[in-house]
Amino acid sequence: MTSWVPELQGRSGPLYRAIADALAADIEAGRLAPGTRLPTHRELAERVGVTVGTVTRAYTEAERRGLIGGEVGRGTYVRHLEAPRLLPSAPRVPGDDTLIELGMNWPPTPEGDPAAEALRRTLEVLQRSAELPELLAYQPHAGLFSHREAGAEWISRFGITVPADQVVVCSGGQHAMEVVIKALTRPGDTLLTEALTYPGLKTLASQQHLRIQGVAMDAQGLLPEALEAACRGGAKVLYCVPNLQNPTGAVMSLERRERIAAIVRAQGLTVLEDDVHGLLLEERPPPLCALVPESGYFIAGISKLLAPGLRLSYLAVPRRGMERLEENAGLAARMTPPLTAEICTQWIREGTADKIVAHRRQEALERLELAREVLGEAVVRSARGPAYHLWMELPGHWRSEAFSAQARRNGVSVTASEVFAVGPAVAPGAVRVCLGAPRTQAQLRKGLLRLRDTLAGGPAPLSTIV
């Protein structure tokens, strides 16, 4: 731990902000290196001669600026300067192993991927269709009724029965999230979610000027008692991922879902449930929204299950919310491209979509087994099913950001826990490891071996600053 003391002479403004400014200056000047462990709140308060509360406010301000981060039981550290990627970047050149991508949560698309062949067949059929010109015209905000009917059929695969007139065709899950959150919230409202959540939601909440509050979790996801306590602050909307949660991979049990549903009803919450990976699980409890259909908005994924390039998802909406949702869908994107929706409609109706999901599930199982072989059962014990990602807990001598940075230097990219932590929540010592992005299992093996070597090597020593 550094014996750092902030230089406050000549600094104006509130004392807590002066400490944060001094911290920023020392980081920029290189006097505090990335990964340096800072004094505890009490220790720094004693050194500077201020209250612990002032130091707490200073560290909170520094964390807000992205300068520092904390990990459970490990303290507060200077963050690495590289900004975390919240949205996927473009794929690298095929065959380039300089940096193997295990950081982005893409579905596996190996050689012979059935989605590509299915697309060729469907385009051949469409070019002979008399209805092709209609797909080039403007469509209703919620989509053509035939596309909404296919969406209702797809949603039924997840365990929810909904009529077509309560389905909105969206341009991917992110679009569906935006449409719902804009309809249900106003700037300054509190949005509840898991303590570790999808980074895209954090970005969306920031853009909408929402206060996002993390709810404590365990191996099954949301803790009921923590959710109940969080509701006392007046929050009305909950976003959650009960199946193969991102990033932890947690799967919520039926008993837990029933307890969460009871709290939702008692507290008057509205639920936005995102089931981006759910169909990878052959057996799964009913969706949370099936237990509270009167207040549940359900996103049935397409991108991670069929193909990201289709940019489509289906949103099931309570009848009372349809008018507002249709309006918001139109404002956000005018309409979802009807050609893409027609492709998905044909795949759903002819059974092609189910075959692609079965192929994705098998590929995910094989890659999970490969991860177990290379990293060991203890490392991947968090896996609750054939997902495209693992939540890898780190040994005590590793911090999440330091491990992520070292892994990148070793030629493999993973995502640090800080990217997923909500608000002032302390990030755990863990990283998300994605198994789908490498085009081949051979490339995945190479990346996992680099990851194993990084684990075995240990962190680089840091000099103590006096």
Q: Could you list some keywords that capture this structure?
A:
466 residues; alpha/beta; Arc Repressor Mutant, subunit A; Aspartate Aminotransferase, domain 1; Aspartate Aminotransferase, domain 2; seven-stranded mixed beta sheet; three-stranded antiparallel beta sheet; 15 helices; 13% strand; disordered C terminus
How is this fold's topology laid out?
Elements: H1 15-28, H2 41-48, H3 52-64, E1 68-71, E2 75-78, E3 100-101, H4 114-126, H5 145-157, E4 167-170, H6 173-184, E5 190-194, H7 199-207, E6 211-215, E7 217-218, E8 221-222, H8 224-231, E9 237-240, H9 254-267, E10 270-275, H10 288-291, E11 296-301, E12 313-316, H11 322-333, H12 338-350, H13 352-375, E13 389-393, H14 400-409, E14 412-413, E15 415-416, E16 430-434, H15 441-457
Parallel strand pairs: 3-14, 5-6, 5-9, 9-10, 10-11
Antiparallel strand pairs: 1-2, 4-12, 7-8, 11-12, 13-16, 15-16
Helix pairs in contact: 1-3, 2-3, 5-12, 6-7, 6-11, 8-9, 13-15
Notes on the structure:
The chain has 466 residues and is of the alpha/beta class. The chain folds into three domains: 64 residues, Winged helix-like DNA-binding domain superfamily/Winged helix DNA-binding domain (Arc Repressor Mutant, subunit A, Orthogonal Bundle), CATH 1.10.10; 116 residues, Aspartate Aminotransferase, domain 1 (Alpha-Beta Complex); 237 residues, 3-Layer(aba) Sandwich (Aspartate Aminotransferase, domain 2). A seven-stranded mixed β-sheet has the order 4-12-11-10-9-5-6, sandwiched between helices. The protein is 39% helix and 13% strand.
